[in-house]
Amino acid sequence: MSGPSVLYIDDDAGIRRLAARALERRGYRMTVAETGAEGVVKAAAERFDLIAVDHYMPGMDGLETLEALRRLPDHPPIVYVTGSEEGRIAVAALKAGAADYVVKTVGEDFFDLLAASFEQVRARSVLEQQKASAEADLRASNARLEALLGEVNHRVANSLQLVSAMVRLQATALTDPSAREALEDTQRRIQAIAQVHRRLYTSNDVESVDMQEYLGALVDELAETWSTDALPRALSLAAEPIRLPTDRAVSLGVIVTELVTNACKYAYPSGGGEVRVALRRIDDDIFLLAVEDDGCGIPEDATPRGTGLGTKLIKAMAQSLQTIVEYDPAHTGVRATLRAAVR
Questions:
Q1: Whole-number Å distance between alpha carbons of 326 and 187
Q2: What are the angstrom distances between the C-alpha of 15 and each of 88, 112, 116, 156?
Q3: Alpha carbon of 332 to those of 43, 97, 267, 314, 335: distances in Å?
Q4: Which residues on neighbouring strands pair with residue 30, listed in sequence order?
Q5: Which residue, 74, 97, 150, 266, has fewest beta-carbon neighbours within 10 Å?
Q6: Domain boundary at 76, 104, 132, which?
Q7: Which residues form the Histidine kinase domain (predicted)?
Q8: CATH classification of the domain holding 282
């Protein structure tokens, strides 16, 4: 016979014989055991597709047998058989790990019920195995994709670093101050984007960026860029641990770079001064970014300085975050703020 193999554990010899005959007629390959201890030994020695356990047995009763069977590695589904219609026994068996239970009755109806339970349990077991296999395949696929994405981020970061170095070399070769300044601004923008990709390939989460870490590294780079031995630049950061999706992190990084660059260029004409960057949550869904200095401020009749590209970038990046950058007219110096959704 090639049907499912069943181990039937029951201390009643007559029931064991009847169960073996009735279930073999229904296509099952039957093995019987007289006691719970004998059943556990047989289940440990041979692989069965199903096990049926009677509740009332001397010595090791059904619940104790069920517990011992479930301790076996890779045990099959177990159907609990009881002659009592008390719900507490069925509940106790199901809580202990039985796949189903059947109330023992006199006649062929019992074996029909038992066979039907076997088929339902086997079908459910197959579905659970298929689900577990599909989930394992999905986890493996996700792991491969995350590894691939990490490698892509690594290569993008390296490529951006190379482009940044080339722009820096080109800037040092120029004699026109305006052209050199434009290339240096471009280099800082590239670095802001590259910093995101560096965060991604060193993180287990490739879908979002820890803004506390990202802005910390970005502010450090900007401080190094704008500082000289004669004029060190004081840049400070106060950031809460907020995670943003990658595209939103890039937009915010570019905005911070532009605002800090403007402050370093124009806030303190006579020397170094502090530039402060702050990021905090307003509530679960909204964050607030602030970049401020205590410098000379922006005169009302001031003419635009530079090419205006930085202002356009700030506006474009803010639009991608569905927000705008606002300036506080009451602040001494310049205070730019931005409120946006975390996602």
A1: 26
A2: 24, 14, 18, 72
A3: 81, 70, 11, 22, 8
A4: 6
A5: 74
A6: 104
A7: 151-343
A8: 3.30.565.10
